[in-house]
From TrEMBL:
Residues 291-410 form the ABC3 transporter permease C-terminal domain. It comes from the Bacteria. The keyword Cell membrane applies. PANTHER family: ABC TRANSPORTER PERMEASE YTRF (PTHR30572:SF4), MEMBRANE COMPONENT OF TRANSPORTER-RELATED (PTHR30572). One of its GO terms (molecular function) is transmembrane transporter activity. The chain crosses the membrane at residues 21-42, 287-312, 332-358, 378-400. Keywords: Cell membrane, Membrane, Transmembrane, Transmembrane helix. One of its GO terms (cellular component) is plasma membrane. It holds the Pfam family MacB_PCD. The keyword Repeat does not apply. This is Multidrug ABC transporter substrate-binding protein.
Length: 417
């Protein structure tokens, strides 16, 4: 019997029991669909997160207080107040960090803002050192739509000025003008000197819900602290990022009298470091979810084997008749094995198509309903792997039923009722 004839025979056998064939591949369809959806959404989430991180700028370096976490036990030895004014002053010294083009200290927290009878819980970002529009534009790609940013003089004099996001303006002022008005933050009056355009999420900050104040004011009058949550440094070129990181580490270790790098009470991250770490985390999470979804493939494989064994029993007379007219054990083995492979292969294709449609629908909902920059990513590698796995399951779980059919005696098979 030729291979082409074996395929035709296998297809004819499946067509005679269409409903059973459809139910047989259900487990494979569900498993492949789940894998495609998980991988596609995982790729979309990874692209979204990495896009937010890279939105800060490729030359940006973040100095963060505390020891860089490498495990749960490390969180007990974090020094959140390790970045002080002296560290900022020494980093600003061009002779210490020659390739630092811009330096911006940052403190942040959640605060309640008020104007007359309206209140709004906003995120406060205290920054400075001459936080002109060019610095915010170069690091966060943010500039004022109305008014202006505060200046180095405002930072030094601890001026009670504030720049507000578009949502803060809408909540507090509605359609009324906001520039020049004073809002209340922790019993202090701040004059609105600038309004940001509707920008949404930039990196880890939503500038629409943010108020910007000089860091000196935030430290003394709002948060009551003398340390920084971050010091953000922008290198003068991408080629000098590594050199700048090393200069910062050497300088801060000298300031903090640290001889052993293992005892650092700070850590320095570049955008490439953050992106790589997030990529590893999202890949690991996606792999875990895929492994969970793959359980349904195994269950589907067992179901196929059981159904094929039932099919062998029901078609015993057919097997005996075919052997009586000259079919060999190899012909019977090939036919039933092809039936199993065709079932799982078709199930894999249906699962890929269904998974792609569900993934596209989910991406559209996330983009439209939640206003996220979420793109649909069809996982070509995952689809190919899913198809190979589904066919492989047909081979693995179809061998036993096929061999059982091939070994049946033609005389006993013909006598079977």
């Amino acid at each position: 019997m030729t291979f082409k004839h074996s395929i035709r025979t296998a297809i004819a056998g499946l067509r005679t029991n269409r409903s059973r064939s459809a139910l047989t591949i259900l487990g494979i369809v569900i498993g492949i669909t789940a894998i495609i959806v998980i991988v596609s959404l995982g790729n979309g989430a990874q692209a979204l997160i990495l896009g937010q991180v890279q939105g800060i700028g490729s030359k940006t370096i973040a100095i963060i207080p505390g020891r860089q976490p490498s495990g749960i036990s490390d969180f007990a030895s974090v020094f959140l107040d390790s970045l002080k004014e002296r560290d900022l002053e020494t980093i600003l010294n061009k002779s210490n960090v020659p390739h630092a083009e811009r330096v911006m200290p940052v403190v942040f927290g959640s605060i309640r803002t008020a104007f007359r009878n309206e209140t709004y819980q906003a995120t406060m970002l205290g920054a400075g050192n001459g936080i002109e529009d060019d610095i915010m534009r170069s690091i966060f790609d943010v500039s004022t739509e109305e008014g202006s940013m505060f200046t180095a003089a405002d930072v030094k004099s601890k001026a009670s000025v504030v720049v507000i996001g578009s949502k803060v303006r809408d909540k507090l002022f509605g359609t009324d003008p906001a520039l020049g008005e004073k809002i209340k933050i922790k019993d202090n009056q701040f004059r609105v000197i600038g309004i940001l355009p509707s920008k949404g999420q930039v990196s880890f900050f939503n500038f629409d819900e943010m108020v910007l104040v000089p860091y000196t004011v935030a430290q003394q009058y709002i948060l009551g602290r003398k340390y920084f949550d971050r010091i953000i440094v922008s290198a003068d070129s991408e080629e000098n990022i590594s050199r700048t990181v090393q200069d910062i580490k050497i300088l801060l270790r000298s300031n903090h009298r640290i001889d052993d790098p293992e005892k650092d009470d700070f850590f320095v991250e570049t955008q490439a470091d953050i992106a790589e770490r997030l990529r590893v985390v999202t890949n690991a999470l996606t792999a875990f979810l895929v492994a969970v979804a793959a359980v349904s493939l195994f269950v589907g494989g067992v179901g196929i084997m059981n159904i094929m064994l039932v099919s062998v029993t029901e078609r015993t007379r057919e097997i005996g008749l075919r052997k009586a007219i000259g079919a060999t054990e190899r012909d019977i083995l090939t036919q039933f094995l092809l039936e199993a492979v065709l079932l799982t292969g078709v199930g894999g294709i249906i699962g890929i198509i269904l998974g792609a449609l569900l993934s596209f629908g989910a991406a559209t909902v996330l983009r439209v309903a939640l206003n996220l920059d979420w793109s649909f990513n069809f996982p070509y590698g995952g689809a190919l792997l899913g198809l190979v796995v589904s066919v492989g399951i047909g081979l693995i779980f179809g061998i036993y039923p096929a061999r059982t059919a091939a070994r049946k005696s033609p005389i006993e098979a013909l006598r079977y009722e």
